[in-house]
Amino acid sequence: MARDDELEELNEEQELLIERYLDSLAGERNYSAHTIRGYNADLNSFFRYANRQKFNALSPTTRQLRGYLADQDKARYSRKTINRRLSALRTFFRWLNVSNISSSNTISAVQGPKIPKHLPHVLSAHEVDALFDALQQELDAAEKATEATGDKKQRALVLRDDALFEVLYASGARVSEVAGLKLSQIDLDTGQLRLFGKGSKERIVPLHNQCLSALRVYLEQGRPYLLDPRKKSQATPEVFLTRTGNPLSADSIRRVFKAQMLKAGLDTTLSPHAMRHTFATDLLDGGADLRSVQELLGHASLSTTQIYTHLTPERLKSVHAQAHPRA
Asked: Which of 66, 90, 198, 263 is the catalytic position?
């Protein structure tokens, strides 16, 4: 059953204002369509609440803002969601101030609920090996089936998954970055990948030989069999494709990852983002400095990267043993 504030409609003036703001995010800050949709949903949630409570959404009191957060908590939204919506409101009111639409600054006095810190889930070396071993077994079976039937599509899909997981683990890329990965972003000769993170910020990530080999095999022996014969290859610039030749979406990558984790006998509650966490942790364990890992992950703040130092006790012990005079 829909909540009252979800049923409350926005008036035309409110809709136009939100549309103007979202256009500014897309045009000036180059936010992705996914991020824009998120901001739209969050702002709509607040405006509907304001309409239901009959107060001016552009000049709310501190009490009204806190009432909105309390209402979200009562509706059992997670603390993470509530904080995200509060963050969306902060940036929205900042834009209203700069645009001389509203001078309200009450949002600055409102704090969101505290979120307990959870360490990222990472795969152990044994689990990473199990994941790729399961893929190799699938590939062996697909090659035998191809010899028997002549159908190369199933083998192409396994080659795709192998290259996909190698890229995730070798680059630490976000799922959205891999889903949108274009052929033009891969340079097999120099062994580099160009990734576009949040705000379309570009970064260059080197790839190791095993990943490059999996990509070459997929691009030469797998991807051609996934392309839709009715389209020219140039019309499909994305690297990873579905069985029908469409770009593999972020949700599809998550489903493929879950299915592969199940086949490998691993924790199916983990998402592909665990590969990004594992990438960062393994680099730090191997002696990489925090700044370099920050650059490779595309983090805007070093504090975001620092969480991985809590996952590397062996590295900290090693640093302590080398640096402390009594160690």
From this structure: 198
Report the pLDDT value the prediction gives residue 136, as an integer from 0 to 100.
94
Q: Give the separation between CA 1 and CA 235, rounded to whole angstroms.
A: 43
Taking residue 2's Cβ as centre, other Cβ atoms within 10 Å add up to 6
| Tens digit of each residue's pLDDT (9 = 90 or more) over 144-191 | 998 888 889 999 999 999 999 999 999 999 999 999 999 999 999 999
pLDDT in tens, 23-39: 999 888 888 888 899 99
> Among residues 52, 263, 273, 315, which one is catalytic?
273
Question: Is 273 labeled as catalytic in the residue annotation?
Answer: yes
251 — pLDDT class (breaks 50, 70, 90): very high
DSSP 247: B
Catalytic residue among 31, 39, 49, 308: 308
Q: Catalytic residue at 230?
A: no
From the candidates 174, 223, 225, 277, which is the catalytic residue?
Answer: 174
198 is catalytic: yes
Question: Chain-centre distance of CA 228, in angstroms?
Answer: 27
Which of these ranges, 98-102, 125-129, 232-236, 291-295, has the smallest mean pLDDT? 232-236
* Helix, strand, coil distribution of the chain in percent, nearest 5: 65, 5, 30
Catalytic residue among 160, 223, 276, 277: 276
**Token digits for 80?**
């993470």
The answer to whether residue 54 is catalytic is no
Residue 83 structure tokens: 């904080």
- How far is residue 148 CA from its own chain's centroid? 39
Map residue 45 onto helix, strand or coil: helix
Q: Which residue has the tokens 């909540």?
A: 3
pTM for this predicted structure: 0.65
